[in-house]
Every structure is written in C-alpha cells, then in structure tokens.
Design a protein that fits this description.
- The chain contains 8 helices and 33 strands.
- Among the domains are: 155-310, no CATH class; 365-434 and 448-538.
- It has a 6-stranded mixed beta sheet with strand order 20-21-22-23-28-27, with no helix packed on it. Strands 1, 2, 31, 32 and 33 form a 5-stranded antiparallel beta sheet that branches.
- It is an alpha+beta fold.
- Helices cover 20% and strands 30% of the residues.
- InterPro entries: RMC1, RMC1_C, RMC1_N, WD40/YVTN_repeat-like_dom_sf, WD40_repeat_dom_sf.
C-alpha cells in the first residue's frame, strides 16, 4: 500500500532515549509526558526528555537502591523518587534552594506505597494498598504537610492528568472503581461505580486488570474505557470497549460500546477525540468516533469502526550519529512490537528501541475510504486540522470525475453552514454581552474559539466556488451548485456576501441566461439593502432587466 492508504502514523520527530538494558532503567511520567533514563540507580546519570523539551534535563543522584518510580512535579520544580515500599524521597530543582534530599513516609501503618502522582507543582498523592494520602510539599522547609487521606483497600490505581482524577480498583474482584478528583489543594471523592465483568467469576481472585482499563478525555468529557474480552463460548463475535462517562458531579454511567468483532491482544489510544484500538495479532488498528451516529438500544449506543482496519504507516528509524556519518539507510521500525507500551492519550513507547512517539491521524486518506459524503463531513468537522481537507472534498465532489449528485452536495453545504451558523451566533452573543457591560475578564464570558470546522463564505468562494465556475462544466450544474450554496446560507439565516451574488450574476451573463438572471436579481439581489454594486457587472444590453 502507498502512503495514501494509511490513516494512522507515528510522529516524524520522536523522543529518542537510551534503550532499556540491565544498567539503564526507563520510566515514563504520564503527567509531564517525560521519559526518565536512569543509569545505575542514578549514580552514573539521569536523563529526562519530553516531546516538547528542546533541552533534556540531566543530573546525577546517589545510588540508594533500586528506583521504583521517579517523576518531576509540574514545572519540573521538585523531583520525587520512590525506592522502597514505605517512603518517597524529594529533591528541590528550584534555583537558590537546598539540594539536600528530604523523605516522606506513608502515614498509614503497615501500608505499602503502590506509587505516587503529582497533581500540581507542589501537591502530590501517595497511593498505598490501604488508601490514598494527599500532601502539600513545602520545598523551603524541606518537608510535606498532609492535606487529606482516605482509607480504602486498593488493588491498583490509574491517573488521568488531563482530568486530574485518580481511579482506585477496590474489592476482591477489583471491578469496583473509586475515583478521586483533585483541584487547587482539595481532594473530592466521586461516586464509586462497578465495571460489569463479561461473565460471573468462578473464583474470588482479582478479575479486573489495569491492562484492560484506560482513562481519557473525549470531546471534553472524561471517560473510563474498559476492554472487555469475551470468552470463546460467548454468543458475541469478539471483544468490545465499554465507555463509562465519569462526570464531576453525579454517578458514572455506561454510555457507549465499541464493537471490535475480534479477539486477541489489544491496546488503546485516543487521538483527536477518536478511540484507536490496536490489534497485535493482525498488526492493524481501527478507529471509533462516538460523535457519529450509532445504534442506540435505549441505554447505550453501539459503534462499529469508522473505517476498515489498517496498519500504522510503516516507519523508518534514522541511523544515529553525525550527519556526514549517517549515510546508511534507515532501519524499518517493527510496528505493533510486543515491547511497545501504550500510554494515554496518544503515546507509544518502545523501551527496547529507545523511542517515544505521538500517534497521529491522517485525514486525507480517509476521504477515499469513507464514500458516504454526509458521514465523511460529520467525521471531518470534528477533527482539529480539518479545514483544507474539507475544502478539498468540496472541490472533489464538484469535479468532472467525482461529481456528486445535487442532494449530496446540498447535504454537505448544510452541514458546513450549520457549523458556520453556530459560530456566528456564539460570536453575536459574545458581542451583545460586551455591549451590555459584561467585563472581558468575567469567567462566564468567553470569546468563542474559531475552530477549523468553521468554513465561511470567503473560504468557499476562494478555494471552491470561484475555481469551480472557471472549469468546463455543464452550465446548468454550475448554476445549480451556486444556487444550492446560497439556498443553504438562507436556510440558516446567514447573510449572503456580495461576492457570491456577483459570482452568480457573472456566470448567468456568461451563459446568456437572462430569464434566470431576472429571477435571481428579483429574489436575491433587489431585496438587498445595497443592490447597486452588482449592477456594474451587467452589460448595457441587459440593464432593462432591472
């Protein structure tokens, strides 16, 4: 397959770090998205790299035993290192601050620390097998202050830094999840919820593994994703991903089920609000969009893959070394390797190869893989970098080779103008609020963000319609398309810009369609409060029409 057949790719500028080996241990911090390469317990060096870090952080620390976990606070001000199951050591990385280590032991007697999470530049959470402890770090005093704690039996935990939520697995089976929310020095206990296991457990051992759970923000809402493996004897045709919506207030609710229709080893990412499911056995991935229409059974919505399964685009690893030396050919990267570790939302790490990639979605190949133009527009309008792809689809559907029917063209125009109108209304509401005296700094007043999904009349005129009218196309089709776009604007009560009127008049005059010109002027232009500017486009011989 060529590049145009792959809709997923690894970023072209990955983070490169020293690969894992008996001397070098590799750790990943999900909050700062940093990779730590710790050599000989730190005695021979620690190198910290992240996707946005131009300059890696390098330092040494005394080898006091095996490092179990290592993370910087937000803004890289304080380093926390766990070496034992009882304590965490801290070092200040603040200018003119003491470099001496200080230590905090977990407060709960006989508890073992499972791990820790930074929730701000000076706030940290210890997760133990007996509960959760929330601390404020005081770097000047080189000690910690306990803000809040909660006793609860914990099997494992998961942290979502984007939502500032820690999820604890509790009970014997492990399928009762207890979320905690952190913000500005406060810890809030959210309602616990139960993950439905695929079948009644035959034993009382742990049935829910952290490998089958992920947390991610999708379309601004926090979801818990559960990868449910069905047994071979089940009537279902394969595994599925169950999405539980986890709100700030109220109970967690099962909302969506993504049907995978296969079994095996899976991994999950979320990219551009799309759930990406990787299947190791077939070395392919599929994507799901929960905004697209699914099958609602009254309780949950079932979704199928948006597109056929495809591999991630083949990737070449460049040879390391100075530019004059690297004349060797790049080495093909082993995709879907068993050494790959996936982190949310979009990170793939190969510790054995020493690379961290961000997974990316390629929109242009999707245009040819999704023939339903209406569904394609629904999909593209939700993507971040969609404008030029949408405009290319509009041009494509008006071309001689891929010409769409008028009803399809009308559907596309209506979907575009629906988004356009939403933005115009939001902008108008913002302007009205300002004129009414509301302050720009008011937290309730936010200027609407113009996303790439807003395709205005200028965009359509410049990139699509003006180019389209210059092509050798049947004039009836050309005029029908122009009138369809104006019809759609009128339907959404969007004022038609004069250059669109002028384009229609120019096209009608060019083809000597004076009867249609008369109707157009009567119904679309003469009703305009400023119609005179278009008259200059009319030849003298047809001014009688006016």
């Amino acid at each position: 397959m060529g590049e145009e057949d792959y809709y997923l790719e690894l970023c072209d500028r990955p983070v490169h770090f020293e690969k894992a080996n008996p001397v070098n241990c590799v750790f990943f911090d999900e909050a700062n998205k940093q990779v730590f390469a710790v050599r000989s317990g730190g005695a021979t060096g620690v190198v910290v790299k992240g996707p946005d870090d131009r300059n890696p952080i390098s330092f040494r620390m005394e080898d006091k035993g095996e490092v179990k976990c290592i993370k910087f606070s937000l803004e890289n001000k304080i380093l926390a290192v766990q070496r034992t199951s009882k304590t965490v050591d801290f070092s200040n990385f603040i200018p003119d601050s003491s470099q001496l280590e200080y230590t905090q032991e977990c407060k709960t007697k006989n508890a073992n620390i499972l791990g820790f999470c930074w929730t701000s530049s000076t706030e940290i959470v210890f997760i133990t097998d007996q509960g959760i402890e929330f601390y404020q770090v005081l770097p000047e005093k080189r000690n910690l202050k306990l803000l809040k704690s909660q006793n609860i039996n914990v099997n494992w935990y998961m942290y979502c830094p984007e939502g500032a939520v820690i999820l604890l697995s509790t009970t014997v089976l492990g399928n009762v999840l207890q979320p905690f929310y952190f913000r500005a020095g406060t810890m809030s206990k959210l309602p616990k919820f139960e993950i439905e296991l695929p079948s009644v457990p035959k034993s009382t051992k742990l049935n829910l593994s952290e490998r089958d759970i992920a947390m991610a923000t999708i379309y601004g809402q926090l979801y818990v994703l559960f990868l449910r493996h069905h047994s071979r004897t089940s009537s279902s045709t394969g595994a599925e991903v169950v999405l539980y919506h986890l709100p700030r207030e109220g109970a967690c609710k099962k909302m969506h089920i993504l049907k995978l229709n296969r079994t095996g080893k899976f991994a999950l990412n979320v990219v551009d609000n799309l759930v990406v499911v990787h299947h190791q056995d077939t070395e392919t991935s599929v994507i799901f969009d929960i905004k697209l229409r699914g099958e609602f059974d009254g309780t949950v919505t079932f979704h199928h893959p948006v597109l056929p399964a495809r591999s991630i685009q083949p990737y070449q690893i460049p040879m390391a070394g100075p530019a004059p030396v690297t004349s060797q050919s790049p080495v093909p990267c082993k995709l879907y390797s068993s050494s790959w570790i996936v982190f949310q939302p979009d990170i793939i790490i190969s510790a054995s190869q020493g690379y961290l990639w961000n997974l990316q979605v390629k929109l242009q190949p999707i245009v040819n893989l999704l023939p339903d133009k209406g569904r394609l527009m629904d999909f593209l309008l939700q993507r971040k970098e969609c404008k030029m792809v949408i405009l290319s689809v509009c041009s494509q559907m008006l071309s001689e080779s891929d010409r769409a029917t008028l009803p399809v063209i009308a559907t596309v125009f209506d979907k575009l103008n629906h988004e356009y109108k939403k933005y115009l209304d939001a902008e108008q509401s913002y302007t009205t609020a300002l004129e009414a005296g509301q302050s720009r700094s008011s937290p309730l007043l936010k200027r609407p963000v113009r996303t790439q999904a807003v395709i205005d009349q200028s965009d359509m005129y410049t990139h699509v319609l003006s180019v389209f009218t210059e092509k050798d196309m049947p004039h009836k089709f050309v005029i029908a398309v122009l009138m369809e776009y104006i019809r759609s604007l009128n339907q959404f009560q969007i004022t038609v810009q004069h250059y669109l009127h002028e384009l229609v008049i120019k096209t009608l005059v060019q083809h000597n369609l004076f009867y249609m010109l008369h109707q157009f002027l009567q119904y679309h232009v003469l009703s305009d409060s400023k119609p005179l500017k278009v008259f200059t486009l009319l030849p003298t011989s047809c001014l009688w029409i006016c």
